[in-house]
Amino acid sequence: xxxxxxxxxxxxxxxxxxxxxxxxxxxxxxxxxxxxxxxxxxxxxxxxxxxxxxxxxxxxxxxxxxxxxxxxxxxxxxxxxxxxxxxxxxxxxxxxxxxxxxxxxxxxxxxxxxxxxxxxxxxxxxxxxxxxxxxxxxxxxxxxxxxxxxxxxxxxxxxxxxxxxxxxxxxxxxxxxxxxxxxxxxxxxxxxxxxxxxxxxxxxxxxxxxxxxxxxxxxxxxxxxxxxxxxxxxxxxxxxxxxxxxxxxxxxxxxxxxxxxxxxxxxxxxxxxxxxxxxxxxxxxxxxxxxxxxxx
Amino acid sequence: xxxxxxxxxxxxxxxxxxxxxxxxxxxxxxxxxxxxxxxxxxxxxxxxxxxxxxxxxxxxxxxxxxxxxxxxxxxxxxxxxxxxxxxxxxxxxxxxxxxxxxxxxxxxxxxxxxxxxxxxxxxxxxxxxxxxxxxxxxxxxxxxxxxxxxxxxxxxxxxxxxxxxxxxxxxxxxxxxxxxxxxxxxxxxxxxxxxxxxxxxxxxxxxxxxxxxxxxxxxxxxxxxxxxxxxxxxxxxxxxxxxxxxxxxxxxxxxxxxxxxxxxxxxxxxxxxxxxxxxxxxxxxxxxxxxxxxxxxxxxxxxxxxxxxxxxxxxxxxxxxxxxxxxx
Lengths: 296, 328
What we know:
CATH class of the domain at 90-287 in chain B: Mainly Alpha
Helix content of chain B: over 70%
Shape of chain A: elongated
Largest sheet of chain B: none
Distance between the termini of chain A: 12 Å
Largest sheet of chain A: none
Number of helices of chain A: 10
Number of strands of chain B: 0
Largest interface: A-B, 54 and 60 residues
Distance between the termini of chain B: 13 Å
CATH architecture of the domain at 90-287 in chain B: Orthogonal Bundle
Structural class of chain B: mainly alpha
CATH class of chain A: Mainly Alpha
Number of domains of chain A: 1
Number of strands of chain A: 0
Strand content of chain A: under 5%
Oligomer: heterodimer
Number of helices of chain B: 14
CATH superfamily of the domain at 90-287 in chain B: MetI-like
Helix content of chain A: 55-70%
CATH topology of the domain at 90-287 in chain B: MetI-like fold
């Protein structure tokens, strides 16, 4: 879903054996490192926002409402309640990114278990797992996530569980495709000839090979979770106010869009840059780890 | 029709699992199901008669599995019960809203294809040249823009700054006071921005599939033969390469239905279009648990049936599919 440019072999300078092999960090390109820098900046800033010398993100100063960007007392301006936008963007980053950094690993764990089992055993196990996966996929994810959180309550823990659950299908499919490919390789055959158990083969032979291409998927999932978390707060069904979230900031700014567009566009820009950077990082990692894009 | 038989055998358990999961949703609520169904209606919640009536209507004294099949039986007949908040039949409420959502989806999908097909062909023809890189970079940017962000951007540009389009609202096609000649333009005008938002968000996905597919197809022998015979590039593209490439596109369109429905929830809320997505959010605000359940069920079933239709279409259009299925 999130991956964009499937480069044909001729474009990826990383793989094709030119005479001089550049170190891996120089192969990645400037854009990759800019993306990493942004993600590190916004994550670290978000997680330690409470320690930084920022204005109060929740209780605004009503004397300074609607400050434009680059004002003396507010770098990115203030909103209709006089709350500092820079402070709110940083605090909001901490909230969304916490979810985005945890949930994909749960999906990865279950995706690996299901995908490797399906790809290794095939037959009936494969059928049952694919029925399960197709059933999850049948629920439009935002509809299902909103409804589930409505019934369960939108606590951060429930959000992590629900986000992880809807990430499972994609991880499973990619893990399955890779497991099928590797299960036919000689080293698996050799392990089997030595009398290795199924569990050992899956764990020691398949897992290390299958997990690598899935790491880029983890990063794509992070980007997707930021979007979905934003949808939930935007629609008022996510983490309840006054906790600042990007989605809620965009929604609040939207109400005042004709008067003060930056209240909506500052958090939008932060979100856009974060998603763009994550997609960029994921895409580069995929190019590095992808042996054959077509087999996925 | 070996392929279709395979797909059907697969879809039947999916159908039961999907409906069962939707049915169980309401049991996730903390506390008593009767309280949940009654919502904030305190008077009714205290009224033992009303409670007994609900228990009887939903057969809450019976085991879950029997309740499920009773519910499923009703569902298949288009009977989804009544909302305890508004008192109306849920199926009627849904049918009022589906046309709006359907119009939005159809228009967005058309727009997405109108943009993605030419760009995809161009990308494939100029693979790895500056044109292709530029298109890919643009798609990358669109992909990183969440629909609510692009919606706000478009509203700001077209409704606030340029003031050429309405920011939100809906004009039904049929009403008693205005002739169609007035309602059609008004209706379409209010669909322009939402269509743009959802349609553009779909472009990168179709574009990518089409580009990869086209690049592969263009390397096939029959394309080389067509070229050798001296046919023009456009003839080769549309008559020879488009047909095999369109099969993947059809499958992807089917798989995108879920994403489109998800998009409706946000976009209809922003643009105040009274479709299914807006209905979901309104029902959540009202804590109308049965309606929320009905919308989830309906949207999942829509996905299942659209993909069944895609499978049928696929098997009819592409004879290779059946041959492949028989070999397995």
